[in-house]
Amino acid sequence: MYGNETKTVTSTRELAKRMDQTHPSAPGRWKKRTGPGWIGWRDEGGWNLVELQVTLLLISLLAGLCYPAFVQWADRVERDLFLGVLASDIRMAQREATVREEEVVLALDSEAGIYRIMRDGQVIRQGKMPSRFQVESNYPGDRILFRRTGQVRGGTLSLRSGGELVGKVIIQVASGRPRVETGP
């Protein structure tokens, strides 16, 4: 009547012709399934071996390029976490000295890779240093002494990796507040 009525498909040939015209893929891609139990059409599209190999090659190249950046990122995260934990332990030692009104010592043991916070010779807290980093200090005997008032002599704990300075914790004079600085 009006020219835009829909037609009913009467044969499989007509259906195949319509699918080739309306489907966005190349003509002839749709094949009829034959045999017992198969009724209808299926898509014959897929990846061939060359396309699969090129895709896998590109994925492996991208993974190879990203690996060094990922390793550097992991090293920076480990460094930042350790320096943050060390600074918070220094604040904890200072608070412990102030609250208990007793001297508290933070002792570094670089050979064992640990540091201890002690009060009256007893270990309050013990922390582990990452194996790839070395911690150096300018405190005598690698011991930081917090007085009963929480005051401490100012100084620096330097974090090195392979001899290169990668970060430090600077302990301010008298106030004892630690400040973390990291390298690139």
From TrEMBL:
Membrane-related topology note: Single-pass membrane protein
Keywords in alphabetical order: Cell inner membrane, Cell membrane, Membrane, Methylation, Transmembrane, Transmembrane helix
TM region positions: 52-71
Main location: membrane
Pfam families in the record: GspH
Compartments in which it is found: Cell inner membrane
Domain annotation General secretion pathway GspH: ranges: 86-166
Name recorded for this polypeptide: Tfp pilus assembly protein FimT
Organism: Desmospora profundinema
Lineage: Bacteria, Bacillati, Bacillota, Bacilli, Bacillales
